[in-house]
Amino acid sequence: MNSHKVAKSLSYFSILFAPIVVPLFIWVFADDKEVQHHAKTALATHVLPAISLFLSFAIFSLVQISTDSANTAGFIAFTAVVSFIIVSILLFFFNIIRGVKMLVHDETEGYYITE
Questions:
Q1: Residue 37 CA from chain centroid, whole number
Q2: Which of 30, 40, 61, 79 could pair covalently with 35 via S-S, beta carbons 3.0-4.6 A apart?
Q3: Residue 95 domain-assigned (yes or no)
Q4: Which residues cross the membrane (predicted)?
Q5: Greatest Cα pair distance in the chain
């Protein structure tokens, strides 16, 4: 198996064990531009859930959620937190799917169809 395939897929799969550290190291120390590109993409998709987690805690601490149905601020905070959770789950599955694609992608295939 090609080491570039392993490095590209490891940067995505690292969401399971070291989300920000592994893609950062691969991005800094890789010598191939394609591996650096995938590590940078994986790093961005690993940082976004951390930012959304921070924002959801900030929203919960700044807005007092009440049971009153007319509380607009509480509704906005709840909607924002649910949106952040959904985005985090989607990015998690994106990283897993992308990691599998990097492992099974055939290096001899081109990205573009030529006639």
A1: 14
A2: 30
A3: yes
A4: 12-30, 42-63, 75-97
A5: 64
